[in-house]
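Deviation from plan, reported transparently: NAI complex.
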Amino acid sequence: MTTITLIRGDGIGPEISDAVVKIIDAAGLKIDWDVQTAGSDVIEAEGVPLPNRVLESVKRNKVALKAPVTTPIGKGFRSVNVQLRKELDLYVNLRPCKNLPNVKTKFDNVDLVVVRENTEDLYAGIERQVDDDTAESIKIITRKASERICKFAFDYAVRNNRKEVCVVTKANIMKLSDGLFLDCYRNIAKNYPQIKQREILVDNLCMQLVQNPSQFDVLVLPNLYGDIVSDLCAGLIGGLGVAQGANIGLDCAVFEPVHGSAPDIKGQNKANPTALLLSAIEMLKYIGEKQYADKIENALFKTLKNGVCTADLGGNAKTDEFTNAIIKNL
Ligand code: NAI
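Because the crystal trials were delayed, the predicted structure below was used instead.
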């Protein structure tokens, strides 16, 4: 039996984790879930929000499924999510964005992939209070991290029959930092003559995405732009409830949805488990269980085609009703 780390998170995390575990189990795949807790709930007992045991578990099992963990805004502890990605050197944040059956959106031809650098940029968390009225945040961009993320994006494009890799920066203003990222993209692109190249500024990208998203294929971006643009892309395909993601490194991978812990709907049986389920489907493919991944994906698509969906998609199914409908369709 395969052992996989499960971080159930907080907010809506436990509800959607339970739904996904139930669906995988009902599909007939036996997984030994190594359940790990993190975030504010463990601080009191263990002193830190991301105890070593969580990192050790992911290192041991090589694969994790992770629900969202809340990060206090403006104060408090550093993001468990960012720390996990950094500690495990999960340098790729991969966020495929594709229309789902029967999920009505403004566009019906979105099929793009966001490849977000996951370890540096303004996310390095290097900030200082200069004086009472001034704060500074340092943006770190290195050749090593930029080249490896651009290489991943091109390799991904080749492996998945994609035609174009478009680099997104603000190199007209941040000439050194974003300029370096762009330079790395150009260097790496030389090795992939079969893949079309494109360069775009992040503000123009946002405008183009909301007008004509089908023109984009694979996007590669520094961390912060990648974060913002992935939520925008989630909006193109039906919102955060359906946007999947994965954090991938050389040694391990953590699969998690784009969305956060949604405290506004916590404990109300309203959360959409689709984003975590799609992340889990990618995880199953990653560990070589494609047959089960396809089985679960078909059941999910059938459920959506039948018009069963949660409130965020305009439906009236509760989390448990939606989950049971998927199980019925397996
Ligand atoms: P959020 O993604 O939690 O929620 C934004 C909006 O989308 C809310 O109205 C929420 O109800 C809705 N939503 C999100 N996921 C949904 C789902 N599965 N089904 C139905 N509706 C859903 O973003 P927010 O409010 O900015 O962040 C809340 C907390 O989550 C913060 O502490 C933030 O730091 C954390 N966060 C954690 C992430 C992670 O663990 N990887 C990623 C993003 C945010």
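Residues 12, 68-71, 81, 240-241, 256, 259-265, 271-272, 275, 312 surround NAI (CB under 6 Å). We consider this an acceptable substitute for the interim report.
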